[in-house]
Amino acid sequence: LQGIITAYKSGITLQGNTTSLGRWDYSGSFFFSISAITTIGYGNLSPSTAVGRIFCIMFALFGIPLNLVLLNEIGQLMLLGVQHCACCLEEVFHWQNKASFLMKTCALVTGLLLFLLLPPLLFSDKEGWSYEEGFYYSFITLSTIGFGDYVIGMNPDRTYPNWYKNVISLWILFGMAWLALVIKFCINLLE
Q1: How many domains does the chain fold into?
Q2: pTM
């Protein structure tokens, strides 16, 4: 039993008469990299050797600041897009404050759909989770809390498409940028 637990912790899962190393394949490694540099840290994957741990430390030392710069740039691009649309509406319809409010509302609703309300449907399909569990995973992930009680692509009884973890990794990056804008907006309101 101890051998099975050790094998599982190192990324080996049994699927019938075959063994899958899917946790450390390309998409699994990419997902691990994203969870490390975003500081989500689900706790389901970790380096098991001294060299791997040292590499992970070095990767995080450079990756976390670079990720913060990337998230800031993505957030600024999203904000510029909203402001550009608001300016266009002001010019076309001669609205002053209404255009800005309308665009901020549209950006909030679009972000809610793309990052919090629609992804749980994908998680329900691919993971077998309820909508509530998928919504919970979405928020816990994008807020970087990352408890690790729900992690995508870890059920050995399910087969996942090759694109799944890569798309979720990109969703995490853009979703974190969007949620950071929402939190910044809330902070501005509170101040």
Answers
A1: 1
A2: 0.79
